[in-house]
Write a structure and sequence with these properties.
The complex is a heterodimer of chains A (189) and B (333). Chain A is mostly beta strands. Helix content of chain A is 2%, strand content 52%. Chain A is elongated, with a radius of gyration of 22 Å. Classes of the chains: A mainly beta (189), B alpha+beta (333). Chains A and B meet through strand 3, strand 4 and strand 5 of A and helix 6 of B. Chain A: This is Elongation factor P.
Chain lengths: 189, 333
């Protein structure tokens, strides 16, 4: 089992706390003129996404979390789980709903996703920043409106609903920014 | 993910702007002018020593030299402050002395901490620590070019009583932990500290930020368990350490003492520090026998103070991080 001393704390370091993996968001070293030093940290629970504060005595050690990111190709969903494949080792893994979370709204077969592994199993899935998806349903736009001010809802092939400009029609491909969930542009196949 | 300083790749360029480098030169000139005008002698003492500070809260760096008499891998320690050597000078009758020097503390890095930093340390034989606080106030107001900046003194006990409603001399660990929770500190479960550790947490997290707002605040008269190298006297029904710290804008700038000159008491404190280090499984550096010999010979009653010059420059230049006043922060060293 690996351990980190508080001296090694910095943003992005992955540690274990109460059985859950956390990522350090912010680390502040605090020390009085004479006396005990502290590390006050803000840490993100990698399972729930919740950010909490924690105070450590400087010099204490914390168990390292075996967490790392890897790119994997999304293969298919079998109705319960999402299947991914490592493109070099061809190793396949399955991720449940808790790990896939919001990414389920955006990914389709063959997309390359960032998979965060904890002890070798998928902990969370991050979709590509931009995905190209087909509109399966949207109201016909008003002729002559090309600016898209206001927009309208459109349902995409993955089930996600985004606001699109009025001139975009059913069966068209659009590019969506998955970080904001917003329409970015029309896309060609 | 916000970038932290240590993520910034090393660069040959300075961490500080030219204006901060010039501000340092100007500050040192003012300091030297101040001491020259009041007859305090500038001295220089070695950075390396065969003994080291015993304070359990400090970690010394060490090195070795390849010369006769220093064989067998015996380390030389880099000073964490020039205190011991300057006290040896005082014992020879130098009169008042000051020094501007680099000091080294391992394991300290943050927005206000850097493992190598600059200290101004000075000693006034025949003065008590109250008079020295006035001296520090005069120097800092001159250094910051703020002659009318107000000065106040707050005792450690009053600060805790007024700010947290507890008596730091008598509150137990449970009460201190409860006060930290009440003050809004989160994530304390599992934190195991001794009484002084809890007091340190409350001071740094809850009380310090309010100190020295637009003024110089001297926090003084510490609990005897935090005396460090200061004298302890009786005040009313309790013992207090003749120790002070200076704050501006919530930042601790200086630490001063009515200096302990009793050799027996000094040896006992060194040994208590080493016993604590042993219990913590931390290194036990050799005690400075030269300092004890000097105290045994006789050191004048005096008051002394160490002031962090990098932090003073941060205040003078409005810097948010110590890196902004260092020519090259350690990541670029």
């Amino acid at each position: 089992m690996a351990f980190y001393s508080t001296n090694e704390f910095k943003g992005g370091l992955k540690i274990m706390l109460d059985g859950d993996p956390y990522s350090i968001v912010e680390n502040e070293f605090v020390k009085p003129g004479k006396g005990q030093a502290f590390n006050r940290v803000r840490i993100r629970n990698l399972k729930t996404g919740r950010v909490i504060e924690k105070t450590f005595k400087s010099g204490d050690t914390v168990e390292a979390a075996d967490v790392h990111d890897t790119d994997m190709q999304y293969l298919y969903n079998d109705g319960e789980e999402w299947h991914f494949m490592h493109q070099e080792s061809f190793e396949q893994m399955t991720a449940g709903e808790a790990a896939v979370g919001e990414a389920a709204k955006w990914i389709k077969e063959n997309d390359i996703c960032k998979v965060t592994l904890w002890n070798g199993a998928p902990l969370s899935i991050e979709p590509p920043n931009f995905v190209v998806l087909k509109i399966i349903e949207t109201d016909p736009g008003v002729r002559g409106d090309t600016s898209g001010g206001g927009g309208k809802p459109a349902t995409l092939e993955t089930g996600a609903v985004v606001r699109v400009p009025l001139f975009v029609q059913t069966d068209e491909l659009i590019k969506v920014d998955t970080r904001t969930g917003e329409y970015a542009s029309r896309a060609k196949d | 993910m916000p970038r932290t300083e240590s993520d910034v790749p090393g660069d040959w360029r300075p961490s500080a702007r030219l204006t901060a480098i010039q501000a340092r030169a100007e500050l040192y000139a003012r300091i030297r002018g101040f001491f020259s005008a009041s007859g305090v002698l500038e001295v220089e003492t070695p950075i390396l020593s065969r003994s080291a500070v015993t304070d359990p809260a400090l970690s010394s760096l060490s090195t070795q030299v390849a010369i006769a008499g220093f064989g067998s891998g015996r380390p030389l320690y880099l000073q964490t402050s020039p205190e011991f050597a300057m006290k040896r000078l005082l014992a020879t009758g130098t009169g008042p002395i000051y020094q501007i020097c680099k000091v080294f503390r391992d394991e300290e890095r943050g927005r206000r901490h850097h493992p190598e930093f600059s200290l101004l340390e000075w000693y006034r034989p025949g003065w008590d620590y109250g008079r020295l606080m006035d001296d520090v106030g005069a120097l800092v107001r001159l250094a910051l070019d703020r002659p009318a900046m107000p000065v106040e003194r707050v005792t450690y006990r009053d600060l805790f009583r007024d700010g947290l409603g507890l008596d730091p001399w008598h509150a137990g660990i449970a009460q201190l932990r409860e006060a930290a929770g009440r003050a809004g500190l989160r994530g304390l479960d599992g934190l195991e500290l001794d009484r002084d550790g809890w007091l340190d947490l409350l001071l740094t997290q809850c009380l310090e930020p309010g100190l020295g707002q637009g003024r110089l605040t001297f926090l003084c008269d510490y609990p005897p368990s935090q005396a460090a190298l200061s004298r302890v006297r009786t005040s009313g029904e309790v013992a207090v350490a003749e120790r002070f710290e200076l704050y501006i804008d919530g930042v601790e700038l200086a630490n001063g003492f009515g200096e302990l000159v009793d050799v027996g008491e000094q040896r006992a404190r060194f040994q208590a520090d080493l016993a604590l280090r042993r219990a913590q499984g931390r290194p036990e550096p050799p005690i400075d026998e030269f300092l004890l010999d000097a105290l045994d010979h006789g050191m004048p009653e005096c008051a002394g103070v160490a002031l962090g010059l990098d932090r003073l420059l941060m205040i003078a230049t409005g810097a948010e991080s110590i890196d902004a006043v260092l020519s090259f922060a350690i990541e670029r060293a």
